[in-house]
């Protein structure tokens, strides 16, 4: 049986932004949004990428480095995504939402439809379930170091099958055991969609799908959390990026009559948020962020209704944004429900819809043109660039991109 979970807003036409996801129990349901985690500096053993879900920082390159940047871009273009046969997968149109690697070999996958967290220790060749919990829909996963991590739960109240009211779980032994996080003060969120690690002690959690909209922040490595209700500005929060404990952006859908893809920015550790972007596409939703460098970033604008299909781009670290059309195949109504977006460099990136019948696209010129990437299959929710040689993508399956930079 299918359940349609829909937002009802007075006097507002709400687009049918749906995400098919098999529940961990017997039934399935349709949601508007998906969620996952981001990280400013991933705890990898090799040189980390500039940002979670993002690639190698090629911004502000000196003239002597320009040729090296061009060589790296050629290496990325010469690489091909490979589906990991030993990874968890779902062939019914549903998808997993997040993958996080503490090194190129050790990683974790948040599998909401399977109600579990899976782990690999061999670079994705094999995976094993390390945490399975009835009634839980795992949306996001992130680690502060090799041992200490968190997993976010979409939370109870959206369907009868999601019954777990614990919004966040914690492990301190590399996933061997997980315990509920209970040290939350303030207005407690109903669920967590995204986890963003800033450094070894600062971490941010946001949520949730279909609301309510909350931000949780910890400055002591997750020992204590302070939650803030942002319902007056956002109807839901899906993703976030923080470059420091005081500066960051959150994305989702605006509140009240402003039900479009909206980006808020804070410069005072979340005490206040200012709107820096609102999509011109009616009934749209900001879904995922990707910053391949400190200044250049992209946002997937989900539109499953009338279109036009768009994405947003910043060149000043997120203070201002420009919305551009996506020249892609759309649904019969003209919409393109973009969810996952990830850039390996400022120029090379991918965008994927939640509709499995639509293709995933790649750009090689910073979003000016897009072409189908047949090596990937929609839906893909998160692209994760671990280092300059290794990237992963997660959705209905898990893919790996190995970039050979050894060539002269």
Note down, in words, how this protein is organized.
The strands form seven sheets. Strands 23, 24, 25, 26, 27, 28, 29 and 30 form an eight-stranded antiparallel beta sheet that branches. A six-stranded mixed beta sheet has the order 4-15-16-17-18-14, with no helix packed on it. The chain has a four-stranded antiparallel beta sheet with strand order 5-33-32-31, with no helix packed on it. It has one domain (35-232, 288-402): 6 Propeller (Neuraminidase). It is mainly beta and 408 residues long. The model is unreliable at 1-34 and 41-50 (pLDDT under 50). The longest helix is centred in the first third of the chain and has 15 residues, at 63-77. Helices cover 4% and strands 39% of the residues.
What labels would you give this structure?
408 residues; mainly beta; Neuraminidase; eight-stranded antiparallel beta sheet; six-stranded mixed beta sheet; 1 helix; 33 strands; globular
Fourth-tier CATH superfamily name: TolB, C-terminal domain
Structural class: mainly beta
Overall outline: globular
Instruction: Give the CA-CA distance, first to last residue.
Output: 56 Å
Largest sheet: 8 strands, antiparallel
Number of strands: 33
CATH class: Mainly Beta
- Quaternary form: single chain
Radius of gyration: 19 Å
Overall residue-averaged pLDDT value: 87
| Proportion of residues in extended strands | 35-45%
How many structural domains? 1
Question: How helix-rich are the residues, as a percent range?
Answer: under 10%
**CATH fold naming:** Neuraminidase
């Amino acid at each position: 049986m299918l359940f349609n979970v829909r937002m009802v807003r007075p006097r507002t036409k709400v687009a049918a932004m749906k995400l098919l996801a098999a529940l961990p129990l017997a039934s399935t349901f349709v949601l508007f949004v998906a969620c996952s985690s981001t990280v400013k500096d991933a705890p990898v053993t090799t040189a980390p990428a500039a940002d979670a879900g993002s690639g190698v920082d090629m911004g502000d390159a000196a003239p002597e480095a320009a040729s090296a940047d061009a060589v790296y871009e050629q290496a990325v273009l010469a690489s091909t995504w490979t589906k990991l046969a030993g990874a968890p997968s779902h062939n019914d149109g549903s998808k997993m939402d997040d993958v996080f690697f503490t090194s190129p070999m050790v990683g974790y996958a948040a599998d909401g439809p399977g109600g579990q967290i899976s782990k690999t220790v061999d670079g994705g060749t094999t995976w094993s379930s390390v945490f399975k919990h009835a009634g839980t829909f795992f949306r996001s996963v992130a680690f502060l170091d090799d041992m200490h991590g968190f997993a976010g739960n979409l939370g109870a109240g959206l369907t009868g099958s999601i019954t777990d009211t614990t919004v966040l779980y914690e492990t301190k032994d590399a996933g061997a055991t997980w315990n509920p996080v209970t040290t939350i003060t303030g207005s407690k969120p109903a669920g967590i969609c995204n986890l963003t690690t800033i450094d070894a002690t600062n971490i941010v959690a946001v949520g949730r799908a279909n609301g309510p909209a909350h931000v949780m922040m910890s400055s002591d490595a997750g020992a204590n959390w302070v939650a803030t209700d942002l319902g007056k500005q956002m109807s839901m929060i899906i993703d976030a990026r923080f470059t420091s404990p005081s500066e960051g952006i959150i994305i989702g859908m605006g509140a009240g009559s402003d039900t479009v893809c909206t980006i808020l920015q804070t410069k005072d550790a979340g005490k206040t948020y200012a709107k820096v972007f609102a999509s011109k596409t009616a009934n749209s939703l900001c879904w995922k962020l990707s910053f391949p460098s400190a200044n250049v970033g992209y946002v997937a604008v989900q539109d499953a209704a009338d279109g036009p299909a768009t994405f947003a781009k910043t060149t000043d670290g997120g203070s201002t944004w420009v919305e551009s059309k996506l020249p892609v195949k759309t649904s019969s109504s003209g919409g393109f429900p973009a969810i996952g977006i990830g850039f390996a460099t400022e120029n090379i990136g991918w965008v994927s819809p939640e509709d499995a019948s639509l293709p995933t696209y790649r750009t090689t010129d910073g979003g000016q043109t897009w072409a189908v990437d047949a090596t990937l299959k929609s839906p893909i929710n998160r692209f994760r660039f671990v280092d300059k040689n290794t990237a992963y993508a997660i959705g209905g399956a898990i893919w790996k991109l190995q970039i050979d930079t050894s060539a002269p």
